[in-house]
Amino acid sequence: MRHISVNFIRPSADRAATFATLTESTWLVENAEHLHSVHPRSKDKLHVLLVGQTDAIPAGVLESIGSTCVVHDATKDYDALAAEFPNVMAYFGGPYSVFGFGFLRWLLIDRIFPGEPVLCYDGDVVHNVALDDLAAAFKGITRTATSTCFASIADREWFRAWRRNLQLVESNFASFLDKYLSTLTYGVEQVLSSPEEYFAKFLIEAGELPHQELDASFPYWVVPQPQILPRLFNYVRIDGMERIPTPMTYARVDRIDQINGRPVAFWHMQKPFMSQLSALAILSRDPRSASFGTIPPLIFYGRRASVTGYLMNDPYHHLGGTPTVPWSLYKLANWLVEQQQTLRKSNARPTDNPFHPAFLYDFYFRKNDMSLPFSRARWPIADAWAE
To answer: Which of 10, 97, 146, 226 is most buried, judged by most C-beta within 10 A?
Structure first.
């Protein structure tokens, strides 16, 4: 079974800025270190497929990633796939936009690794469990994490269905939408907030994409969005366990994070969750910070988090979605947004920037664990944690 992460580097004349964007938006460097230091005995390797301006990545960084992972420059194949879907690329910002890339990466995986079972991860994933252990657990299983941040694909019909339906979008997007829009509260605006995720949701719920549920004996928690714990589903409802039993307990045992004694398969370090971790790391320096109480994600992709973004990106927000920012934290949230923008413009060292993966990895994986956010005192969902 292959382990795959596809990542794009948007072409730009400013190579340094291009590389900085990659390191801000992915955890490739940090995850490579994690695989090396925490899972040195794992025989499986993560295949990192890079597309776009790959020469913007410094040679030393590529060597560092390549010491643990297998790095591929798949730009030529990727660009050929983009040429097959000119309308889809026009709709969603081109092959080197987040949304355009989201659709094409699955076709690229199918092309590069034909006929093989694969485990596919977003670039902002940190592997809490060793790759070979994940391969053993997911053997023969085809499913997403109810989000496309992860997919285990043993049945290649998954890829055929993805291509077949993407061709429908290419030929007549309006007709494709007409089949599914009635299932969403906010219609086309909701789809456009995260097109790839809703595309996958539509196909899973229609039975187009194979999707197997995990039974209660599965050895790991699959958490698509940590900030909504104890909830375990995102864009698609689960037939099995939808929530981790509460009150939850957290522990890091032999460098493996566990909830209720069961390891989390991987951490999806999505921007809202990162903002939560950043705020808590900053507040931990101030002994007066306890007065702030619980801390939800305060930044949503560069701006203060609001209910509008959550409603668009979470069709089941009413069933336990990300808590919104209370009025008492507006000032803090606005200040954090300003700090994030200032640090980005100032080209601060990544390890000194509390919003950067390099800083957060050092704080939460080298020096500390996740007990700071995963506590009754700080978690914004009431009674989720035992302590």
So the answer is: 146
